[in-house]
């Protein structure tokens, strides 16, 4: 692993997550550009079954232990630190996710390495590796070199497609026991709490009317409901709307909510931050309404209109009812 | 339970961001700064915990300029103490390593059972403040937290995963938690209460000198994405746009 590019694999409830394949796609580019190898580090218990999906890597290093069976920030951090202190990789990629962001900073500090968060793409130019990160809700792109000798980066989706990181080769697999003690721990996994059921499953709806901060208040949700009814779809929302309890958590679209792929995604007053884009950019048709003509959502919507949402929605509902 | 809430100020994204032609980086001259939204959730979670089990809530921020109003607002909401760290060097971006260094320095002299902050901030580029502070202080860290419950041997925290799934983790404190969302929306406080706090309460100050960091993330350039580059924009007033959308949906067979 010394001088190599390493991807910290993420699994959740028996599945390798999509961001892992995005990281493998990014990692492959870096490794090829730097003329080094790509290693996938897979922590968990009973993880051999995942290795055949990780063929984009040259090698998979598995570390298995009871304490790693479910994600535990403290246990994972201890093990990853011990592995990387020994092998000194050139670049370590982690997901810009609930698991990756718990590890990234502690790991970087222990390896005395800088960390760049929110990376979407990488490039190698004359032997120098560069990052491109999206910050400020998608309103700013930052670029720069990934400092030597070791640098960490958290990756979000949007730069590479997960399919680019799904390899068909069979990687070399090495299984190790944890190179450090995992007892005692101050953090322990207790249980999963299942998502609430009983509400409409927005991932199965063909038409979504999705509301963001621009809907302004809870009362205006009714306008979106009427529009959804006229279209034969359901109402979903972005994070601020859910956090304000204007819609239940089951309606959340984005990184922490549902991934949706409807025939029509009508985005009302949604700015299009990367966390939201992650959940809906694969929709067949995205029509975005946001008064800010510079809103990041216009960077990936198919159609847009910079008009007032509250003015448009009743008119659109009326026009559809007439149609 | 004594709780310290770490509050960072970030660019208000409602305003247009500009690139400084000389440096190629974000122009901070006229940047309006507001408290990081998830830090407001962290404050709310701290106040909910205080209501349930007592203790002192202290809000800690760095002197980014115009931060007093936000601190008085925190007091008006129920925070017991508000402390502003004064020093130099922490407002140069990317800055989370410096900010975390400054917070850690001040936290060495404060009593706490728990540290809460937003799990992320919109302008993060060189790490996350909570996670960096946790490692500096040698404390456990859990991010993406949506609920904190005191338990016999410490805390039970709820951590959010995609798709509405959550995990429960038991954490022995003191610990640092990155809050993704408070259990309730952050409370609203009327202006008169903020004014009253301004009249009757004081913001404490701690001087921390110059803040440096050993690890820097080099930024060669910043750029504004060409946001209009993809979407075909429908022109006209609301009525005209509504009609254009209906035509579009008809053409595609989405509506009859």
Describe the structure.
The complex is a heterodimer of chains A (323) and B (256). Chain A has 323 residues and is α/β, with parallel strands linked by helices. In chain A, 24% of the residues lie in helices and 28% in strands. Chain A has seven helices and 17 strands. In chain A, helix 4 links the parallel strand 13 and strand 14. Chain A is elongated. In chain A, 57% of the residues are buried. Chain B is built from six helices and 13 strands. Chain B has a nine-stranded mixed sheet with strand order 9-8-7-10-6-1-4-5-11, with helices on both faces. A two-stranded antiparallel ribbon of chain B has the order 2-3. In chain B, helix 2 links the parallel strand 4 and strand 5. The mean pLDDT of chain B is 93. Strand 9 of chain A pairs antiparallel with strand 12 of chain B.
Topology readout:
The complex is a heterodimer of chains A (323) and B (256).
Chain A: E1 5-8, E2 11-12, E3 15-16, H1 18-33, E4 38-44, E5 59-64, H2 73-87, E6 91-95, H3 100-110, E7 115-125, E8 128-135, E9 140-145, E10 151-155, E11 172-176, E12 187-193, E13 207-211, H4 221-231, E14 234-237, H5 239-243, E15 264-268, H6 274-280, E16 286-289, E17 303-305, H7 309-322
Helix pairs in contact in A: 2-3, 4-7
Chain B: E1 3-7, E2 9-11, E3 33-35, H1 37-53, E4 57-62, H2 68-77, E5 81-88, H3 96-107, E6 114-118, H4 129-137, E7 141-151, E8 154-160, E9 166-171, E10 175-179, H5 191-200, E11 204-210, E12 221-223, E13 232-233, H6 238-251
Parallel strand pairs in B: 1-4, 1-6, 4-5, 5-11, 6-10, 7-10
Antiparallel strand pairs in B: 2-3, 7-8, 8-9
Helix pairs in contact in B: 2-5, 3-4
Summarize the structure.
Chain A is α/β, with parallel strands linked by helices and 323 residues long.
Low-confidence stretches of chain A: none
* Biggest interface: A-B, 98 and 89 residues
Could you say which overall geometry of chain B the principal axes of the C-alpha atoms support? globular
Strand order, sheet with most strands of chain B: 9-8-7-10-6-1-4-5-11
Low-confidence stretches of chain B: none
Output the number of helix runs of chain A. Answer: 7
Strand elements of chain A, count: 17
Order of helical and strand elements of chain B: EEEHEHEHEHEEEEHEEEH
